[in-house]
């Protein structure tokens, strides 16, 4: 079975954006689990704060996803134009982050934050033109 | 409870806005000096590590990741997101005022929208309170 180039390009773009969303949500979840890093640094020092972050499983999974995201981005850029892939990945990542933050991180994404997300998405697309 | 950010936390958000975009600009300048890297010239990547612009770029991007991670420890992901997008504005403004590039009307509109987005979220609370979840997480995470 062969896919058209358009399907191929958009599959790559969706995959890169999905990895970014998973990575950022896992890192945000890990940081929420740890609590304010300034407080940890005050009680355990800078080394203790760095150790707390690097031994947090959610953070490590998130960082791995972001590393994978970086390499899959290189692949996506090898088959798609930067002018399409750049803003498309950024816009999908911002919308995906807002949806994932609402349902997985249970953040209160009110009208103000949805409006901000939409402004960012349209703004990024306009800047990339 | 509405979270009020401390001056040091605002400084972290400004660092997020500046570090990634300025870091990318340094990397771009360094890689222009190093030359195009392809599968036949992968050794250039090692050579790139000795370029001062590339080194400054890497340090700034590490700084971005550290400040971004720190911000997520006291603010929501949807609160920090517009700050990361502000990097696009910094790059466009650097192009306009440092490299003297012309910005089209659509790019000025894009800048305005992202600045507006930062303003929208900055006026609201920085973090959603989940006492029961935070308590469970504190037990599991520390």
Explain the overall architecture.
The complex is a heterodimer of chains A (129) and B (142). By secondary structure, chain A is an all-alpha fold. Chain A has one domain (5-128). In chain A, 86% of the residues lie in helices and 0% in strands. Chain A is globular. The termini of chain A are far apart. The model of chain A has no long low-confidence stretch (mean pLDDT 89). Chain B is mostly helical. Chain B has one domain (7-141). Helix content of chain B is 74%, strand content 0%. In chain B, helix 1 runs antiparallel to helix 3 (52-72), helix 1 (7-34) packs across helix 4 and helix 4 packs antiparallel against helix 5 (105-122). Chain B is globular, with a radius of gyration of 19 Å. In chain B, 36% of the residues are buried. The model of chain B has no long low-confidence stretch (mean pLDDT 82). At the A-B interface, helix 1, helix 2, helix 4 and helix 5 of A face helix 3, helix 4, helix 5 and helix 6 of B.
Kindly report how far apart the N and C termini of chain B lie: 24 Å
Count the DSSP helices of chain A. Answer: 5
- Using only C-alpha atoms, the radius of gyration of chain A works out to 17 Å
The structural class of chain A is: mainly alpha
Helix count of chain B, per DSSP?
6
Succession of helices and strands of chain A: HHHHH
The domain count of chain A comes to 1
The computed structural class of chain B is: mainly alpha
- What gap, in angstroms, lies between the N and C termini of chain A? 35 Å
The most extensive interface, with participating residues per chain, is: A-B, 44 and 42 residues
Shape summary of chain A? globular
Mind describing the biggest β-sheet of chain A? none
What fraction of the residues of chain A are assigned to beta strands by DSSP? Answer: under 5%
